[in-house]
Structure formats: structure tokens, C-alpha cells
Fold these 3 entries.
Entry 1:
Amino acid sequence: MVSRRKFLVGSSAIALVAAASGLALPAQAQQADDTISFGIAIRRIDTLSPIHTGGNGSTFRVIRQIYDTLVKSADGDFGVGPEDMQPALAESWTSSADAKVWTFVLRRGVQFQKGYGEMTSDDVVYVFSRHLDPEIVTQDKA
């Protein structure tokens, strides 16, 4: 049999826990409408720079959630060849017969965040130049 005192202490503790757990809800409700929060199971993130992804798979998975690419694979995973790709920032593309020259037609109207303007071919050239810069260590030079 439970004594009256133990019952009151136990029920008071339950009431306090229930009340305290409800305190977090208003703060969540006040989150800005332009904020997106999501969770991803990872070990650690080395960087948020798409140039310095290194060999950390967790970093690569997070970067894939943040940055757009010219093309993407049809199944959302890794594509094997050009036939496995779908348009993303590029709406179409062609290659020379020897596959040494690729031409991408960029989607119009793609805007950078915070009003930095519309994406241009100069932006794409800049990104590829950074990947190929011998002063920058990146695994993407293969």
C-alpha cells in the first residue's frame, strides 16, 4: 500500500515533469517562417565548403542537402554515366565526340540566397576553377 505522502510526492513530480515538457512548445512555435530545420544521422562534419569535402561521407551527405548541382542522378544516388543523369541547374547538356568538351545550357531564373542575383555561366566557371586550382586540396580533381 502506498502512503499518502509517497502518493503526493510522486504525483507532484509527474505534474512538474508534464508542466516542464510543455514549456518548450511555445519556443518552437515562435520559430521564423523562413527557417527550415532537419536532422540527419552523421558522425561529424569537417566543412560546409563543397570544395573541401574530403573523404568524410557525413560531410558529403550534408553538402548534398545544401548545394545544387548541374545534373543529378535519376534515383537520387550516384549515377554511373551521362544517361543516368537528370537536369538540375542545367536544363540540358551535350558532349563532344571524345567527351573532352561538355556544354551545359543553364536553367534561367535560378537565384542565389539573400538577393545575390541570378546564377550565370561565370558562376559555374568559378566553381570549376576552384575545383581545379592546384592550391586548393580537394578530392574532386580526379
Entry 2:
Amino acid sequence: ESKSLKLYLVSFRNHGDFHEDVVNVIMKDLVKLMNPKYIEVWGKFLPRGGISIDPYTNYGRPGTKYEKLAEHRFMEHDLVAMDKVDNR
């Protein structure tokens, strides 16, 4: 449900965690909930102090072709613009 996902994401608004930690928590929760073959989580946070931090993580189910895909996508993530997301 989109509403429950929105409420879940908004619940991180007042957390004192680092952006990287938030993205990893979201990833772990989604993997536990959905058991996906492959998933990516990319945090597009508003800059703090003029510094943009956009952490990225992904997951490929171990023992499948998606595990290799996750490794490849992670290594290539910042080399090629996957899409233009302007949150600045």
C-alpha cells in the first residue's frame, strides 16, 4: 500500500541517524518484508550545509543471477547517470 509506505518513510524524518544508516535500515526492512529477487534503495536527501549525500544500496538474492546483478549495479552506480533526480 502506498499510504503505509509513505507513513513508514516519513517516520524517518526526525531520526538522528546518518543518511547511510537510514537507507540500510529501509533496505533490510524491505528485504525482510518482501523477500525480493532484486531491489535498490537510493536515498535522495536534501543537502545539509551545502553537501549532498545520496546513499545507494541494493540487494540480490544469494545464489541467483540477481546476486551478480546487484554487485554489478553497485559497482557502476555512480559512473553512469541512471536517471536525473533533482532534489536540490
Entry 3:
Amino acid sequence: MRIPQMDAFQWHKIAAVSGIAALGLGTYGFHIFKPENPVYKEFGGLLTAGILSFSGSCYTAAYLEDRKYSALAPFGGLAFVAGWASLLF
């Protein structure tokens, strides 16, 4: 049995519907659900710090080909762990 191939325009339609659904559901969730405990700000700050220090130092060390720039990576990993741990409380 031969499976018909989809042309590129059909994939664009699927992508558009997925984007509309994501935007609509995200907007609905933002305006309807209000968290009782604003721990998400602490969680978001720690994860952002983790991304910037861990990934940033890894990318910088790889781009410049010098391992001395990877010194912040352990602190970024610690920020990731602290961020996930902040959800426990």
C-alpha cells in the first residue's frame, strides 16, 4: 500500500493551526489561571540564571576554544538544581 506524500503547503497549514492553537491556549491560560503561590517568579529567575551561566559558558568555551570560559558552568548547574528544588516548597 502506497502512502501519499503531503505537499509543502499542507505542512504550512498544519504549522499555522498549531501556532494558532498554542497562542490561543497560552493566552487563555495566562488570563484565566492565577497562581495562588507566586513561586514561579523565583523558579523562572533561577532557571534563567542557570541557562545564561551554564549554557552561555559552554557556548563561549566552545566558540572561543578556550576552557577557561567554562568556569561558570557549575554555578549554572547549581542554579538549575535550585530552581527545580524551589518547586518543592
